[in-house]
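User: I've been trying to design a sequence by hand for this structure and keep getting stuck. Would you show me what you'd pick, starting by listing the structure so we're on the same page?

Assistant: Good idea, let's start from the same input. This is the structure you sent:
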């Protein structure tokens, strides 16, 4: 009997050790929200690295989410901007913005209205709805530079343009709902995000591959909370030749410096359309409004206006796929 008891205890101990092991090996661990978020970010990083390693150097990477046609202009129209209090209250109820930055964005908008770099209510609303803090990159954000009055480096030899110059170019573009706009130089993604609150048809091209992938990832990250980003159609390629497949465009905005108007872009601009670009030789660019006028006999004429009346601006050069500038003068 003693022997049987000992055998029973031994068997019990063995099963006591084996069963928890079997159960634990088949049970799903409890995962926190933060762990899930970290896993998603890691998976996304692996996906981007995989793209970078497997694609050919001259590949054409296109994201065309714009078929969803979220109505950013309609949202913008519903937002009150008469007083700071009304705007802040609406933003807290209807948006997912970080409240830390709302005060800075409102103050910037008031300054830009005073300087006439923001004029139409539509442009003011688009500026107020677009979180610049999403696009300045982490290093600049950590330094408190989200709304700094200057251009900022975002890596890859590229910059995010000053808030005032972005606003002036947006105002000059005079973009309306229903119009189709093409941006040359996606860069940080900030300018196209603003445009997405003015029209549902936004197209943008970036030539720097790692920058394109990074900004594309940012749009994907934020578009669930900021669905206007879902109308931004983007492509990796040489913007000098435009996007002929979706031409013509009512408006074209160029965010890199060049000393002439690219003929393919002019061809893809609708009669009566507006192109806004930093035009001039290296180091002496000026923001120009170019209007394309077509007579009854088909003769094309251009009207040009220096929107800053002689004040020069700083933009990175308009480059081809080999990295050479399209401007004729050396940099």
């Amino acid at each position: 009997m003693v022997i049987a008891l000992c055998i029973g205890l031994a068997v019990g101990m063995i099963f006591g050790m084996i069963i928890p092991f079997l159960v634990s090996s088949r049970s799903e661990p409890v995962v926190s929200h933060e762990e899930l978020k970290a896993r998603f970010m890691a998976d996304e990083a692996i996906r981007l690295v995989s793209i970078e390693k497997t694609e050919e150097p001259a590949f054409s990477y296109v994201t065309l989410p714009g078929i969803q046609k979220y109505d950013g202009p309609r949202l913008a129209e519903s937002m009150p901007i008469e007083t700071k209090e009304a705007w802040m209250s609406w933003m807290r109820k209807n948006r997912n913005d970080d409240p830390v930055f709302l005060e800075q964005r409102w103050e910037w908008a008031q300054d830009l209205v005073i300087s006439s770099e923001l004029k139409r209510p539509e442009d003011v609303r688009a500026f107020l709805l677009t979180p610049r803090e999403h696009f300045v990159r982490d290093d600049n954000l950590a330094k408190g530079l989200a709304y700094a009055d200057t251009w900022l480096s975002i890596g890859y030899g590229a910059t995010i343009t000053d808030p005032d110059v972005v606003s002036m170019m947006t105002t000059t573009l005079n973009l309306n709902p229903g119009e189709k706009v093409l941006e040359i130089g996606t860069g940080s993604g900030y300018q196209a995000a603003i445009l997405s609150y003015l029209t549902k048809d936004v197209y943008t091209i970036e030539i720097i591959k790692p920058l394109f992938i990074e900004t594309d990832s940012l749009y994907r990250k934020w578009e669930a909370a900021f669905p206007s980003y879902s109308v931004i159609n983007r492509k990796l390629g040489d913007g000098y030749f435009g996007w002929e497949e979706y031409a013509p465009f009512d408006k074209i905005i160029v965010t890199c410096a060049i000393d002439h108007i690219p003929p393919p872009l002019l061809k893809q601009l609708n009669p009566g359309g507006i192109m806004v670009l930093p035009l001039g030789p290296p180091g002496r660019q000026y923001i120009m409004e170019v209007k394309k006028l077509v007579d009854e006999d088909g003769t094309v004429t251009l009207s040009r206006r220096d929107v800053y009346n002689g004040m020069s601006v700083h933009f990175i050069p308009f480059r081809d796929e080999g990295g050479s500038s399209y401007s004729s003068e050396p940099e």
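That's my pick for every position. To get oriented when you compare it with your attempt: Confidence is low (pLDDT under 50) at residues 1-60. The beta strands are 62-63, 152-155, 158-160, 180-184, 201-206, 232-236, 249-254, 269-279, 286-294, 300-306.
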